[in-house]
Specification:
Largest sheet: 5 strands, antiparallel
Shape: globular
CATH class: Alpha Beta
Number of domains: 1
Oligomer: single chain
Order of helices and strands: HEEEHEE
Helix content: 10-25%
Strand order of the largest sheet: 1-2-3-5-4
Number of helices: 2
CATH topology: HIT family, subunit A
Number of strands: 5
Distance between the termini: 33 Å
Bound molecules: guanosine-5'-monophosphate, zinc ion
């Protein structure tokens, strides 16, 4: 499968890694939208998007991703806050069809979501 995030997980495309465990990888976004912009992925291509979510199959990996996000946020000292974004599908502007969550921080993003 031709998937940029699978290639990053495999080490075939270099990335600035921020966090890694057996199941989860986090790396700096190549086109940052905030001073801190980190992408969290499951290492395995378990879902193209949340649209494929099945609790029985995927609850564990989602929980692990959010544990990684919280851990990284603590380690980076993001005490002023941060935002998590998941783009699911065309209208959300999803460009990479490998489930991922964006962690954005380092600036006051205000109260508006869009
Ligand atoms: P999406 O729009 O699908 O939610 O987000 C995909 C994100 O992946 C974008 O923010 C884009 O900048 C990032 N991205 C795409 N290709 C690469 C890459 O090769 N390396 C890194 N570090 N980020 C990438
Ligand atoms: Zn993939």
């Amino acid at each position: 499968m031709d998937c940029v995030f699978c290639s990053i997980a495999a080490g075939d495309i270099p990335s600035a890694k921020v966090y890694e465990d057996e199941h989860v990888l986090a790396f700096k976004d190549i086109n940052p939208q905030a001073p801190v912009h980190i992408v969290f992925i499951p290492k395995k291509h378990v879902m193209s998007s949340l649209d494929d979510y099945d609790y029985a199959l995927h609850a564990d990996v989602i929980a692990r991703i959010f544990a990684a996000i919280a851990s990284v946020a603590r380690d980076l000292g993001l005490t002023s806050g941060y935002r998590i974004i998941n783009n699911c599908g065309k209208d959300a502007g999803q460009t990479v069809r490998h489930l991922h969550f964006h962690l954005l921080a380092g600036a006051d993003m205000g109260e508006k979501l869009l």
